[in-house]
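hey can u check if this looks right to u? its 293 residues, i copy pasted from the old doc so theres a chance i mangled smth
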Amino acid sequence: AKRVQEKLAAVGQPAEMTIAPSLSLDAAQQHFVCAVVNTSKYCSETTGQLEESIVKAMEGEHGGKVDMSPIQEEFQAVVTSGMKVLVAALESRIAPSLSAMAKIKWDAMEELGEDTSPYMLEVAAKAREMMPQLGEALLPLYVKFFCDKFVQSFVPRLIGSIYRCKRIGEVGAQQMQADVGTLKATLLELPTLGQASATAMYTKLVTKEVAAAEQVLKLVQTPEDMLEETVQEMDRNGISIDLQKILELKGLKKADTERLIEAYNLMQSSASEGGKKIKKMLNLAGGQSLLNF
């Protein structure tokens, strides 16, 4: 198992976790990784069957001493490593599209586009291209495993790319929402494209992960007089947000952002006192154009 694992490509993960890993696989290398996954699964199952046969062949207490589970676990670890390589390969192919997204002047948009943005069309195309290949090479069980891990890994990176945009205007946020809608539809189709069935759990996973990106864009569009209420609602629903980055996307100055962050932190520790303070600041914003975006 160790020799097989050593043959898998190394995944280069940047220190910044919101940036996609660096990994390039051509068609032959991708097929090899799939073969490693399938072979390791077979070896794990065969090792378990071998253990049962040995136990039956041995008599008395000696049979109870036979334990090949460590070997099975080693082969399962190879399976997991192989799947990580495949997920990283797709993320690496998509990374240039996310880089292009961060360079778009989202604050300068005046009209909502009639279609999905080119960068998101590229993301969808890369995913759609890879899934049939995996469907031909992997068992449906591992196609589903791949889809789960890709969604859990990619969507947070997408949110990281949203945060890296310098500023997002209202129309820009609306366009992003349309793009995220295209992404959600694509993610829901991935298992089927890979010759596997999409389960209710997978649909729930996609909905939950994508909702995090949708909430970020919702906050970017939220007027200042409704920001407090919206943030409190998200807190009650257990939704984690990076308020500082949200305020930066809205175009606030550093000093104004720091004051609102302080009020937000107080609101979390003391709903009554913090809520009053942030409300007061937001009321002042009406006269001082604190939230100018």
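Residues 287-293 have pLDDT under 50 and may be disordered.
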